[in-house]
Description:
The protein has 15 helices and 25 strands. Among the domains are: 5-37 and 55-177, 3-Layer(aba) Sandwich (Rossmann fold); 426-521, GMP Synthetase, Chain A, domain 3, CATH 3.30.300. The chain has helices at residues 28-33, 55-71, 88-99, 113-123, 135-145, 160-165, 202-215, 233-246, 258-264, 275-282, 307-317, 389-395, 435-443, 479-487, 515-521, and strands at residues 5-6, 12-13, 43-46, 52-54, 79-83, 103-106, 127-130, 149-152, 182-188, 196-201, 223-226, 249-252, 270-273, 297-300, 322-327, 331-335, 355-359, 372-377, 402-410, 416-421, 426-428, 431-433, 448-458, 462-471, 498-501. The longest helix has 17 residues, at 55-71. By secondary structure, it is of the alpha/beta class. Helices cover 28% and strands 24% of the residues. The N and C termini lie far apart (62 Å). The radius of gyration is 23 Å and the shape is globular. A hairpin with a 5-residue loop joins strand 1 and strand 2.
Amino acid sequence: MLPAQKTERGSYRSNVIHRGSSKVTNSLFLRIQNRFPADLSSILIETPTGQTYSYGDADACSAQIAGLLTSLGAKKGDRVAVQVDKSPEALFLYLGCIRAGLVYLPLNTAYQAGELSYFMENASPVIFVCQPHREAEVKAIADAQGVAQVLTLGMEADGSLMADAASRPTAFEPVDCADDDLAAILYTSGTTGKPKGAMMTQMNLWSNASTLEKLWGFTSEDTLLHALPIFHTHGLFIACHCVMLSGSKMFFLPKFDRDQVMSLLPRSTVMMGVPTFYVRLLSGDDFTADVTSNMRLFISGSAPLLPETFTAFKERTGKALLERYGMTEMGMATSNPLEGERIVHTVGPALPDVDVRVCDEDGTVLGTDEIGVLEARGPNVFAGYWKMPEKTAEEFRQDGFFITGDIAKIDAKGYVHIVGRSKDLVISGGFNIYPKEVETLIDKMDGVVESAVIGVGHPDFGEAVVAVIVAEQKDALSEDAVITDIKSQLANFKVPKRVFFVDELPRNAMGKVQKNVLREEYKALFAN
């Protein structure tokens, strides 16, 4: 059999397309594959340059990648860490991993060397796939952490992964997997400063995707405008899964580019985005009801949607943004309805197969409109934190409910209102940042007595990271020096936008730093 070959348009073709399997399996890949359209020449992806990739390409290329990874010694349950730019081949790499029964471990492309070293040490991947220009840097870290193989993948399908996969067969029998076998590990920032690996099973990902595809009315006639990254839940496990399960198409943008999005809206029917996307669209007078007339649905998530953004969007387009709620550990748990009332400043009722409740700190279930901590239970909720059994036990109730840490209430209609956050979580541009991780680095700097990191409202990012520092000597440190130091160690979205120096931090009677006081003091910092 001839291997799949990349055409002038960028697609992969093979002489024979294989789909389905005679083997009885609960494989996530097989479930997705069996939802591909009957005509595998149907377009799955179109890039901004007009290159197209079919469902047959996804099938053939994922088979080749699965064959390559297993030939390098990867076996069912092994982790494959991936830090690459968004591209069609990056999506096919994900499909190749789950096809081979491997555990997919996506990493933000902004992560720096120290962060990568922790992930490799903690997850012990057998293969690490990185951007070509970072190969030497990643290889040095991989060698130190005992990672056997480093492959590369660039935005234009360049690098060793695709070159080595090209000679592999375009058929690969999906590895048999049980519902509770791991499909992915997603790292989320930790309150102690160390990221936690959320273990997502085959059923976690399948249940959430199949529910949302129906709930949001996806059909083969849809075209999703995909401008999200694919290294986290929103862009990969929600957006891409909804498309593939419905046999629809997506415009696959490397990142959010307002001009590209505006040009593609008239040819799209659905868009998923973070609130920042919608704020940027509203920033120009060219964003009108006419431009969005073909759109049936705009979905917002990953960060709180301001009521003024919801209102301005509806006034401008005549369409109400659909806000939903989820987190790394469980995908989506609630959603405003496709048909029915979308209530501003709520994230809707629980998904059909998910239970949610609000409890006090002791676990007592609270009543309607009473404020407490939101908890969730369902097939979407993760299996626990990788190598952290104690932390896992802390986050679950005896009856299986996961303690989200978000402060909420549930109204008489069953709609969930997120009214605050515990653990001082900062959400900037849709990315979660726990202040402790940043504070730990600042406190290690010479001349620093202590620090407090907070989130301050920002017109574009929702929140921006701000550091407040007590120094040993006045003028011994500078804002630029602190920012430069942190930037060399952490992903850019975690780096403070501003740094301030004070004589002392505000504290309560028990000596705890009052971050609410700091947030109030600096709340107008980024005001227009």
